[in-house]
Amino acid sequence: MTILMALPAPEPGFEDRVRDSFVRQRLMETIGARLVRVVADEVEIELPFRDDLTQQHGFLHAGVVTSVLDSAAGFAAYTRMPADAGVLSVEFKVNLLAPARGERLRVVGRTVRSGRSVSVVAADAFAVQNGEETHVAMLVGTMMTVRGRAGIAG
Questions:
Q1: How far is it, in rounded angstroms, from Cα 19 to Cα 138?
Q2: 73: domain CATH number?
Q3: Domain range holding 54?
Q4: pLDDT for 23-78, tens place per residue?
């Protein structure tokens, strides 16, 4: 069941703020993840499959999958945050549903509920192989809006 809420439009420039923040996130750069789509309350990140990101059985490591889920969910929440804010994860739970193997990982993060100080988020990860997608993991979590704290900015 999906509950739709009428939310005010995000602040102007939110797409650029999300993209600028993503570029500064060095872990995503290190693993080769790309931000491919940014809209209000939703972002999509893709990660090409690489052998150096796998665990001993040849699947993408759960830590890698979780990191991309966390980033997608956090940036989805960030689309609703004020221009002077930053975003931090408060908590999350991940369910690993199937081995992550294929040509690439596609992760979609979305805002479930946006508040002044915290946002509830979700993200889904899909392994893509020959145009077919397998749902491999999901995250549900909480993100915090951070303002006025040294060292934390969009």
A1: 23
A2: 3.10.129.10
A3: 14-146
A4: 999 999 999 999 999 999 999 999 999 999 999 999 999 999 999 999 999 999 99
